[in-house]
């Protein structure tokens, strides 16, 4: 099980959200379906079906179903049109050079209109280039094989729209709310450990330590969604809120590091101090359990709840002669202060435009 988790973590680190893995899977699926449909056709028809489906799967950057359908239709029209143009000029080296040159300029220039992260324009040029070099005896003999290209484009359109459809807005909302829930659970688990002082065999296998990895994955996934151009109007707002999530992770990590020092050095905490730590963890757990992001990406509290003021001051007054215990408690205090500040900033919903 640990090997499987390590394998999944490796792929998550290089592809948060498995977006590229999903795209690769959908591309293979589209190619296989296209080849199965034209399995009784000549080899060149099969070749065009595979090329058409593989190319058409790339470059759709629209995130809503409405604009994704428009992108698919527009790109498929371009793919088919340039391929036909390539077939028409393939027997003339001069016209082939002119067409490829003009098309090369156009596909580079058009990327400035919202297609900076899309490779679809380059796929258009490559498809036109392939039309001029594929081993057809003549342009007339190529027309019967165009059926394969139409099959590939049609199958890819269906796969893009209906297989693993990505609702990025809802995914961002779910990730953020799961983040708050996981952070609340982590603080509850940390409180239980401080209160009961249960023996720990493997620190990395403790629930509140594993929750830290969950928090990182959720924040990384939100950041990946933002960078994928899923949002336009809300991009600045969501970038700031995601940065605040990473600030919460850092504050949570500081509390875990402080607990690790207590556990590793087997430091004895005074009873009053232990109860104060437990109360602060309980406060954080309750507070974050009440945080919720709305469909308009504004964060609010579902219930009125506030941190008890100056509770952390008690940690700075713990009677102790051990510097390592004092440092650990001060790190706890700083962690709770940072958690409170970051949460307050999130609730303001005020971001620079």
TrEMBL record:
The chain crosses the membrane at residues 69-88, 94-111, 118-136, 142-164. Keywords: Membrane, Transmembrane, Transmembrane helix. The keyword Transmembrane applies. This is Uncharacterized protein.
């Amino acid at each position: 099980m640990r090997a499987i988790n390590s394998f999944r973590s490796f792929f998550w680190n290089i592809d948060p959200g498995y977006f590229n893995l999903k795209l690769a899977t959908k591309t293979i699926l589209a190619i296989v379906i296209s080849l199965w449909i034209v399995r009784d056709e000549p080899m060149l028809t099969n070749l065009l079906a595979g090329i058409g489906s593989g190319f058409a799967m790339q470059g759709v950057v629209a995130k809503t179903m409405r604009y994704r359908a428009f992108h698919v239709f527009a790109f498929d029209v371009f793919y088919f049109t340039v391929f036909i143009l390539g077939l028409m000029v393939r027997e003339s080296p001069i016209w082939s050079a002119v067409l490829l040159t003009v098309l090369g300029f156009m596909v580079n220039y058009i990327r400035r209109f919202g297609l900076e992260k899309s490779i679809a324009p380059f796929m258009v040029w490559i498809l036109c280039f392939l039309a001029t070099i594929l081993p057809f005896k003549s342009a007339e003999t190529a027309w019967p094989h165009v059926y394969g290209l139409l099959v590939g484009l049609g199958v890819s359109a269906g796969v893009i729209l209906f297989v693993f459809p990505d609702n990025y807005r809802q995914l961002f909302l779910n990730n953020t709310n799961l983040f708050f829930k996981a952070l609340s659970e982590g603080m509850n688990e940390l409180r239980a450990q401080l209160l009961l002082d249960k023996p720990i065999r493997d620190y990395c296998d403790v629930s509140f330590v594993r929750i830290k990895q969950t928090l990182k994955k959720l924040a990384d996934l939100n950041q990946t969604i933002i960078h994928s151009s899923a949002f336009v109007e809300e991009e600045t707002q969501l970038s700031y809120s995601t940065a605040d999530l990473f600030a919460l992770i850092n504050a949570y990590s500081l509390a875990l590091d402080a607990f690790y020092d207590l556990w590793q050095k087997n430091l004895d905490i005074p009873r009053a101090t232990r109860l104060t730590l437990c109360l602060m963890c309980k406060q954080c757990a309750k507070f974050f359990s009440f945080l919720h992001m709305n469909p308009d990406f504004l964060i609010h509290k579902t219930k009125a709840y506030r941190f008890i003021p100056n509770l952390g001051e008690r940690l700075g007054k713990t009677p102790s002669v051990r510097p390592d215990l004092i440092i650990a408690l001060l790190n706890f205090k700083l962690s709770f202060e940072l958690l409170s500040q970051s949460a307050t900033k999130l609730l303001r919903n005020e971001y620079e435009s």
